[in-house]
Amino acid sequence: RAHAVAKLRHYHDHPGFVEPLADGVREALARLAPVRPERTRVVFTAHSVPVGMARSAGPAGGLYETQLRQTAELVAAAAAPDLPWDLVWQSRSGPPHVPWLEPDVNDHLQALAEAGTEAVVVSPIGFVSDHLEVVWDLDTEAAGTAKRVGLRFARAATPGTDPRFVAMVRELVLERLDPGAPRRRLGTLPTWDTCASHCCVTKAGPRGRA
Question: What is the pLDDT of residues 72-94, one digit of tens each?
Fold first, then answer.
């Protein structure tokens, strides 16, 4: 028989997640100042995944990219409403013959430089803390790419231990204990916290193996 898994709801649009990210973008822009808005971009990054997994994410598919794009929209509107922004990918792994989400952040930075961009803020909205894939892939590799192609570069902070993010986790737990509790969110995408046992099963198998 089918089983249900109860879990905390997705928080891609929760103020406790969005507001620390927006502050991180503001602080990074301040480190780059002065900038020319017409030559400055915000580049949001998240972990790349195989294209097949991205297409099957969520009940109707495509949820991974859709949620990340909404997070980017909310953070950009709050922190840099006058700047253009992009959503790109990082930390690709796995066999080279399997297609993953693109463009890679390093390729994108080079393309921006070639198009005349002078300064970039990179905000890793797909991550909640400054772990290896942020400190190495962005602070080392992406920063090195930016230097090589002549881009001024600042990496925005992740939420980490920001009190608003920590309070959000507690709030989401309380939601599970009290279904009538108010659910704070800034976005418009459907949200849920109970999944059927078959929810994330893909055509490649329950773990999405290629």
Answer: 999 999 999 999 999 999 998 88
